[in-house]
Amino acid sequence: MDVRSDAVVLFGVTGDLVSKKLFPALYELTRRGRVPATVIGFARSPWDQQQLVTAARKSVTEAGIDVDEDVFEDLAGRLSMISGDYADPETYARLADALAGAERPLFYFAIPPAVFDAVVEGLKGAGLADRGRVVVEKPFGHDLASSHELAATLRGAFAPERTFRIDHYLGKEPVEGITLFRFANAVFEPLWNREHIASVQVTVAEKFSTQGRAGFYDKVGATRDVLQNHILQVVALLAMEEPADDTQEAFQAAEAAVLRQAAALSPETTVRGQYEGYRDEPGVATGSQTETFVATRLTVDNERWAGVPFYLRTGKSMPVTSTEVVVEFKGAKPGTGNLLRFQLGKKDGISLTVQVKRPGADVTAQTVSLAVDFDDVLEPRREAYERLLDDAMDGEHLRFAREQAIEQEWRIVEPILDLESGVLAYPQGSWGPDEADALAGGWA
Ligand SMILES: NC(=O)C1=CN([C@@H]2O[C@H](COP(=O)(O)OP(=O)(O)OC[C@H]3O[C@@H](n4cnc5c(N)ncnc54)[C@H](OP(=O)(O)O)[C@@H]3O)[C@@H](O)[C@H]2O)C=CC1
Ligand SMILES: O=C1O[C@H](COP(=O)(O)O)[C@@H](O)[C@H](O)[C@H]1O
């Protein structure tokens, strides 16, 4: 095993991702003694160390963490700041000085993809890429062709074993738990196929809108932001065959194999929506056709899944924030199929609907739910970003997205990218356009 990273550099430290996810993760890792002595914030904004510490405190507090002052001071003492132009070699020379004693620094790209090339060049030029690890965020590229370009850029600077592609859904305990649930419960695995399953639904719904990120979001949209990566990743875990053994390679092969068998999505069976008022947000192009909601039907053409529709949807300004999978088993009668529900968000758990006798003289059925809330039965789960940052510092790849899978994910979504028309308005707080309900025949 390679050495653990002895420094972390956060490119884009002034941004949304660092504030929402990475500072809280670093705080938790500090509490567990897992943060290196050197954590450098890197940005164009001329922040000093004090501004960096203030931003870190604000972000940890806003994450709802009950701050332990000793832990925070410990983290604050490790933070330092480098400000400068991402394209200026002089900025990287200062970074190289600051990392002089670091054997295996970890470079986290919390920056828009447009800046990646400049940073990779800067790190290479300063001799830092040779000994560093790099973490890049999804979406990996903008489409299939640009994802290949990004892969080539990264390969030209960092060894594959030191390149980490984050799809943070892979770091979520309940998402990781899908395959264990499937393969460790012999009661379900024999039923996990087209003989017994009528449909599979995956929903990533967010009650909030673009939260001030509309300028970024308008160039991306729901398909690239969530469907191409998080949702298809969950589909792969639900649909894949059991890996041949418990190595990372076998897992990777099984995941890529099932994605290869998934058909490319069709605009005919896709509904794209945009919440009302989106076009008035700062940064959104006039007449924007960017979707803030997408619902679609995926098919997987193999022995296990032929004929089973996978209904997938994600959107902003929905009635609730919820990430859910519903596996609908075929029923003895219409409307009585058992629903196995995986809740994959903050309130994680599993439930199964079953038919029981309704009390009374007649023997008739009533549907009830056998439900488990993981908060009641499991130890506290660590946040995805905390787990993934910890893994990347260890050089551990298991929970990171793989190039072959990413390539397939782009192939699958490509026909529904950049459609120039057809985005349907929906009221904020609704489940998207009515056409999305018709697509799935009602969502469970
Ligand atoms: N925010 C989120 O919830 C998530 C984000 N991601 C990914 O993480 C990465 C960062 O996202 P996020 O933090 O939201 O991005 P931001 O838009 O907040 O940008 C991050 C920082 O990058 C710098 N930056 C922005 N635009 C430019 C530019 N054109 N040239 C140079 N620097 C620029 C800015 O810092 P400064 O000007 O000070 O240098 C900014 O604070 C992206 O790849 C995104 O796709 C992935 C999952 C979730
Ligand atoms: O990658 C992203 O994910 C978040 C949703 O993540 P979750 O862990 O809160 O489910 C989404 O809000 C964001 O737009 C997207 O970039």
UniProtKB/TrEMBL annotation:
Domain Glucose-6-phosphate dehydrogenase NAD-binding positions: 9-176
Keyword Oxidoreductase: yes
Keyword NADP: yes
Pfam families with a match to the protein in the record: G6PD_C, G6PD_N
Catalysed reactions, as listed in the record: D-glucose 6-phosphate + NADP(+) = 6-phospho-D-glucono-1,5-lactone + NADPH + H(+)
GO biological process, one term: glucose metabolic process
Gene Ontology terms for molecular function: glucose-6-phosphate dehydrogenase activity; NADP binding
Catalytic residues, chain numbering: H230 (proton acceptor)
Key words of the record: Carbohydrate metabolism, Glucose metabolism, NADP, Oxidoreductase
Its EC number(s): 1.1.1.49
Spans traversing the lipid bilayer: none
List of residues binding substrate: H168, K172, E206, D225, K316
GO (cellular component) term, any one: cytosol
Function noted in UniProt: Catalyzes the oxidation of glucose 6-phosphate to 6-phosphogluconolactone.
PANTHER family: GLUCOSE-6-PHOSPHATE 1-DEHYDROGENASE, GLUCOSE-6-PHOSPHATE 1-DEHYDROGENASE G6PD
Family: Belongs to the glucose-6-phosphate dehydrogenase family.
Stated name of the protein: Glucose-6-phosphate 1-dehydrogenase
Native species: Winogradskya consettensis
Gene giving rise to this polypeptide: zwf_3
